[in-house]
Amino acid sequence: MFGVMTDKGVRESGFYSVVRHPSYTLEALMFLILELKGLSGLNQWLVASLFVFIYYLRSEREDNFMSNSNPAYLDYKAKTTFKFLPGLY
Predict the structure, then answer these.
(1) Which of 40, 48, 75, 82 has the greatest number of beta carbons closer than 10 A?
(2) Is the whole-model pTM more than 0.70?
(3) H or E segment to which residue 60 belongs
(4) Is residue 63 exposed (0-12), middle (13-18) or buried (19+ Cβ within 10 Å)?
């Protein structure tokens, strides 16, 4: 079940029943929380924003891959409308 761009199947329980990419959300939040004290200058905020943007790009790539490789993912994507944060996005 591990690997880059492998069809891992569709998970619909737990966090995955609320958002499609809970691991990306939690990893990005963990990074921001750990680095929050050090985010004092513009450069640090730009790097942190870039890090979050990379997670967004990874999620887009994964959505495209899963949509093309697994027909069940399209139903899951329609049912689970939020990508990262419930009620927001």
Answers:
(1) 48
(2) yes
(3) helix 42-69
(4) middle
